[in-house]
Amino acid sequence: MQARLLVRVALMTCSALASVPSWALFKCVVDGKTEYQERPCAGGATQSRLREVAPSSAAPSSVEVPAQLQGAINAGIVGSYPVRGMNQSQLQSALGSPSRVNVSDYASGFQEQRIYERPNGTFYVYTRNGIVESSQFTEAIRPQVVQSARSCPSAFDIKNAEVSANSIALSDAQRKEKLEIVQRMRECR
To answer: Which of 12, 43, 103, 170 is deepest in the core (most CB within 10 A)?
Structure first.
């Protein structure tokens, strides 16, 4: 009797999960915090189904990918860069989790801007209904250090060196060395 009940519960759970398309979007409210996710909300959360893409725009996993595109996608995954035509699973394999995601809900479907920040720059990946449509890479701005071939001391630095060279605590050899440094500082200007 108990085994039959477990089988029924398992079948009902499977049928409920199978009836929810993977491209649906749910709004979940947990402890006053609102979250948007592709999976149904966990127990104890208030759930609202926000949008479901029409079956005519097939789920990304059911789309037949040409061999040439699949080769480019595989190269993108290995090289850690996005390729137009990747689905979200492939994008995750290539770049990992995004730093930020901006979602737009239009009549034609969902559009996302997925932002991947890296030490050498930032990838901006634009998806429509889970498929990469375009991307851009912005290199990190690094401050350029300008070094002059010869750096001359300021008048203030020269004045401080003169005061230091005239200290009564210096020996004659130390004073002579410091005065030579002051002379070189003046010649630089």
So the answer is: 170
CB distance 162 to 155 below 8 Å: no
Task: For residues 74 and 99, state if they share a domain.
Answer: yes
Compute the residue count for the chain: 189
**Residues 108 and 167 both lie in one domain:** no
Q: Are residues 46 and 70 in the same domain?
A: no
* Predicted TM-score (pTM) above 0.70: no
Q: Where are the alpha helices (DSSP H) in the chain?
A: 2-19, 67-79, 88-95, 155-165, 172-188
Tens place of pLDDT per residue across the chain (189 aa): 555 555 454 545 544 444 444 444 567 777 777 776 666 777 767 766 554 444 434 444 455 667 788 888 888 888 889 999 999 999 999 999 999 999 988 887 889 999 999 888 899 999 998 899 999 999 888 766 665 556 788 888 888 889 888 888 888 999 999 999 999 988 886
Decide if 147 is inside a domain: no
